[in-house]
Amino acid sequence: MTTVLVVEDEPQLLRALQINLRTHGYHPVIAVDGASALSAASEHRPDLVLLDLGLPDMDGVQVIAGLRAWTQVPIIVLSARHGPEDKVEALDAGADDYVTKPFGLEELLARLRAAERRSAAAPGTPVVTTGDFRLDLAGRKAERRGEQVRLTPTEWRLVELLVRNPGQLVTQQKLLLEVWGPAYAREVQYLRVYLNQLRRKLEPDPARPRYFITESGMGYRFEP
């Protein structure tokens, strides 16, 4: 049975989605805010995600970014936001489809079936473990030698981009664009500052990095 994570804080719509998904052979798992959505995704490993953007604790785009740090599960946005800029932002963040409210049940089911057909079979892993530290990407928790390490939101965005591409060069431009945006595409000093911070927090010897490697003039690489 296909598991669908439904992230929606409107009780009546949530109930209707639960009933109709069960009726059509899906197994719904529910979450009413962003934090519980990320936790449920890590625990239940859903096959599909239906995500409202207007959540009480965080914007749905942040939830998409959190999921995309470790999984390629199909994400279908359900939103009352009709503006093209909202759709572009969600799709650029990693959503696979965008359905505006109100919507018809048959249309939604058709989009679910289409997402299932496109879905990659291999799941991602929400936890990265090395000999010196552990990163729970879904829960946004970092530990070094058994002790909690606090990473800032910017540090998390950087580390997620690097660890989800193990052994591969991630260019300076890609990091700057995805973490800070187009206005910062030339601010390479930001990368030096933040990578140094990450190394101080996670590397056993920040002066001789083992995990976060600089490729001079090109970018950075994570070696697990």
Structural notes for this entry:
This protein has 8 helices and 12 strands. With 224 residues, it is an alpha/beta fold. The chain has 2 domains: 2-118, Response regulator (Rossmann fold); 127-222, Arc Repressor Mutant, subunit A, CATH 1.10.10.10. Helix 2 runs parallel beside helix 3 and helix 6 packs across helix 8 (188-202). The longest helix is centred in the last third of the chain and has 15 residues, at 188-202. The chain is elongated and about 60 Å long. The mean pLDDT is 89.
Q: Main traits of this protein?
A:
224 residues; alpha/beta; Rossmann fold; 2 domains; four-stranded antiparallel sheet; elongated
Give a count of the beta strands, DSSP E runs of length 2 or more. Answer: 12
Cα-based radius of gyration, to the nearest Å: 19 Å
Percent helix, as a range, is 40-55%
The H-level CATH homologous superfamily of the largest domain, spelled out, is Response regulator
What does the oligomeric state look like here? single chain
Unreliable runs, pLDDT <50, ≥5 residues? none
Structural class given helices, strands, pairing?
alpha/beta
Q: What is the count of DSSP helices, taking H or I runs of 4+ residues?
A: 8
What is the mean pLDDT?
A: 89
CATH class of the largest domain: Alpha Beta
Q: How much of the residues is beta strand, in percent?
A: 15-25%
End-to-end Cα distance: 34 Å
What is the N-to-C succession of helices and strands?
EHEHEHEHEHEEEEHEHHEE
Instruction: Please describe the biggest sheet, giving its number of strands, its sense, and whether it closes into a barrel.
Output: 5 strands, parallel
CATH topology of the largest domain: Rossmann fold
Shape-level CATH architecture of the largest domain: 3-Layer(aba) Sandwich
The best one-word shape is elongated
- Give the strand order of the largest sheet, numbering strands 1, 2, ... along the chain: 2-1-3-4-5
Question: How many structural domains?
Answer: 2
